[in-house]
Every structure is written in structure tokens, then in C-alpha cells.
TrEMBL record:
Keywords: ATP-binding, Cell membrane, Kinase, Membrane, Nucleotide-binding, Phosphoprotein, Transferase, Transmembrane, Transmembrane helix, Two-component regulatory system. It is a multi-pass membrane protein. It comes from Paenibacillus chitinolyticus. The keyword Cell membrane applies. It comes from the Bacteria. The lineage of its organism: Bacteria, Bacillati, Bacillota, Bacilli, Bacillales. Its EC number is 2.7.13.3. GO terms for molecular function: ATP binding; phosphorelay sensor kinase activity. This is histidine kinase. Residues 205-259 form the HAMP domain. GO terms for cellular component: plasma membrane.
Amino acid sequence: MSIRLRLTLWYSGILSVTLLLFGFGLYLFLSFYIYNDLEKQLGRTWTETYERIKPLAAPSIRGRVPIKLELDNVDMFSENTLLQLASLNDTEGPVIHDRSSVLKNLELTLPITNNAAQKLRGKDSLVVERLNLKVMDKSYPIILVSRGFDITDPVTGNKLTRGVLQVGATINYYENFFNLLQYTLAILAMLTVLIAGTLGWFLARKALRPIEQVIVATQQIEKGTDLDKRILYDGPEDEIGRLTVTINGMLGRLQLVYSELEEAYRAQRRFVSDASHELRTPLTTIRGNVELLEKMWSRTLTSGQAGGQDKEQMEMSIEAMQDIAGEAHRMSRLVNDMLSLARADAGFEMQRQPLELRPLVEEVARRAQFLPRQVQWEVGDLEPLTDVVVVGNKDYVQQLLFIFIENAFKYTEEGSVRLDALRSGDQVGLRIADTGIGMDKEEVPHIFDRFYRADVSRGRTAGTGLGLSIAKWIIDEHKGSIEVKTRQGEGSTFIIWLPVVFLPVS
């Protein structure tokens, strides 16, 4: 996950939590404030209504309350206000004395539960409830403030019973308001988070743009394509600004060091190339003279002109010259290989042209049978090469094949070495398979490194360790690839893949 995305998610997450807490707090505050204010208004209404209660004489021979209570001018309040005057009777429950016109018209009474009745019998009792009032199969939420008071005999002043004055108000409007507030806060919060996240994404992109420039510059440094590039930054001298200046300074030092290393590497390549050129002539001279002396002394021994001690010394000298010739030949191969790699390092581009592949491979197969070997040489199916044309250099393609064939002969003591061809799409493959010593899979990635030799014999088999490095260079120059299949003790298979070019028929 990128820093830009993480910053945007963190910012959006923090904003979401903040808005959630703000919306929840706002909802609770408004709910508490509005309902508390409504309860205070109902309390004031209760006080004003209580002052308008008129007790009327209503004697009864059945033991009921001898006083009848009546509300005076209750319609002065809002139509939304519900008023009810009752008294508490221990035997028969609450007795309703009077109601506001709204309740009378709807033929409704406000409920007094047993729990509320017990509280209302206490001194200075006050009960605040939220109830649902059912009207014609519909339910309406209300807030109900109930408070008890003593009913006394207006003549004697003795307490007769306990009265209850209830003041209520419907809160449909408030409930609808808070429902709408919930949806509004939720929608606004989502829109705010979405807008803030989008803006945060673009702001993070703008803030992190210098870092993206740092990444691009370092990638170019990694590829070694442009060491002169510097990070362009025209922003404030903040953390990113200081980081940019530091990296630009580091890039300058890297460029200086890389230039020095490149110059040293060029000097080394020139030395190897010049030394290889200079060594080829004396080595050729040494080999020629040694071979000449070997022929002359061999002829002398054959003719019988030397005898006794001279013959023995000449035989020893011939053996010494054969050793010198062998080492000179090995040094010549090493010098030629080093010269080829020096050309590759110097950026030498071989001349390539359309090349018919089958005649070239058949020629290599014919000449390969004369190479030093201990195993059978087999040429398999070359039919996939018929009419196949590649863009390449004839000499280097031949050298490429001989490198793999000679390696196969070198590391195969019994069995066979086989050459055949195969096709896959627009690629043609040249397969060299042997039954030799093979390799461990851990060694395969290193076999194309210079001077690396994977064989366990190492010192027993002649070689410079540069052949496969040269082969890899030739394959790369021909835009091809190499496939290696090997197993320890079972042999190795190398498949050289080259792109096929189809020339128009004239």
C-alpha cells in the first residue's frame, strides 16, 4: 500500500471518527436541550393550570370524594397541550374529574400507571414519562408531566384525598425532526468524508510529488542510464525539501565516484584488449617455432642419425616442446577468449545479416565429428531448420555452437552427445544434449559467469572458464535466449533459442 493511499485512509478515518463523535454529541445535546425545555414548559403550564383548579361540592353517600374538581379556562393553552385532572382513590383507582377539549373530543384519557400512582401519593411528587397515546389504531408519542396535590375540605380544611394534575404534549414534530436530523447528519458525514478523501488524495499526491521524483531519479540511477539527473524541487524548505537537497548531494557524489570507476573500468578494458593483441603475436611465434623444432627433431630420430645419449636427450626435448606447445595453445585460446570479451565490454556490435540456418548447422555438425572426444557424436532431426532464416553473424553462430559441443565432449566420458533442432512459434531452438556429469541446480545461475567452472574435476579438464560467458554474449547479440536442463550425474541439455525472420519470396 502506497504512502499516498495510507495518508488518505488515515485522514478519512480520523475525519469519519471526528464527524461521528460530533454528530452523536450534537444529536444528544439537541435532544436533551429540546426535551428538557419542553418539560420545563409543561412544568410552567402545570403551575398555571393548578392555580385554575376549582373545587366544587359534590356530597356522596357512597364514600366517594365529596369534592368535584374542575379546570377553569384550560383552552387558553395550545391545542397541542393535553390536560387532565384526576384524583387517586385507594379502592377504585384514579377518578377522572376534568380534561382538556382535545381529550374530550377524542374521548381519550391520559393513563396513570400503578407505579406512577404510588409515586404521586408522596409529598411534592413529580413524574415525567414518555408514553405512546393510541388514537384510532395509531400511536402518538407524548411527554407527560404528572404531579400530585392534596385535596382538602374547603370548610374544615381537612385532607380528603390526593389529586393529580397531568400536563402532556405530543412530540411527533420533535421525533420527526430528530429522525430527519439523523439522516441529514449521516448523509452530510458521508459526503464530507468523500469530498475530504478526494481532496486529501490530490493533496497527498501534490505533497508527495517530490518523493515520486526521488523514486524516478533513483530508478534511473539503478539502471545506470542518467547519472546527471537531479531532483527538481521548488517547494518550501520543509522535510521533503531538505531530503531533496540531501539526495541531490548524494547523487553528485555517486556521479563522481561512478565516473572514476567507469574511467578505471575503461582503462582496464583497454589494457585487456591491448594485452590480448600484444600476446597473440608472440604466442603464435612460440607455437610455430616449437612445432618446427618438434618436426625437425622427430625427423632426426626417425632417420636414426641420433644415437645413444643424444637420442635420449632429443626424446626428452621433444616431450618438453610438446608440453610447451600445449601450454602455448591453451594460452592462445585464453587470449582469444579475453579478446572476445574485451570487445563485448567495449560495446562491440557484430555485423549481422539474414542467414540461412540449416546449411550452417550441418557444416558445424560435420566438423564436430573431428573434434577430440571419447563418446559417440549424434546428429538428430534438423528438419525444423529447413528454410529458417535468422539475422546473425555466421562466424559467431558457428563459434557459439562449437562452444557448447566442445563443452559436451569435455564433460562426457561415456554415452553420447546429440545435436538436433526444434521450433516453437517464431523461435527456433538448437539443442545440444549430453550424458555427462551434469550439474547441481544451484550451479546453473553461475555457469555463464566469467572464470566459473561447475565441473567437480576442474583441474582435470582443460578450459579457461570463459567459453559460456562468450556464448551468452553471442546469444544476447542475436536477441536470443538459452534454456538449461541438467541433473547431477545424468547429463545436461542446452537449448539455444533464436528469433526467426521470414524474408519475402522474390
